[in-house]
Amino acid sequence: xxxxxxxxxxxxxxxxxxxxxxxxxxxxxxxxxxxxxxxxxxxxxxxxxxxxxxxxxxxxxxxxxxxxxxxxxxxxxxxxxxxxxxxxxxxxxxxxxxxxxxxxxxxxxxxxxxxxxxxxxxxxxxxxxxxxxxxxxxxxxxxxxxxxxx
Length: 150
Fold this sequence. Notes:
seven-stranded antiparallel β-sheet, five-stranded antiparallel β-sheet, globular
């Protein structure tokens, strides 16, 4: 598979309407049984809440922008060209602290997390009803074997 920049399953978060991501590779996109690849474009001030993946390592490749990365007990800046390695079961949080969009690609060493992402989003261009706090907690509990949030 060769995927163009805009290719893949584009989705809009229900936790923050107007925020999009693209599932590039997973069991449903390309048929991978061993990894998930997600592209994300974060506006200034957007953040990925602190969480950990109990059953997968993760790489985040920063292509553009500036991020504050909370990794384990460290808090560091990452700029375009940086690669963040997150061993399984390590706390990670990312915030766009720059003035421009933060463009990144996340690679998970095992599939599963993409199903959580689908549960908290809708296909781009379809009606989007924001999740209530209770709905989000229920979904997080259901997918806790793939991600645990603080």
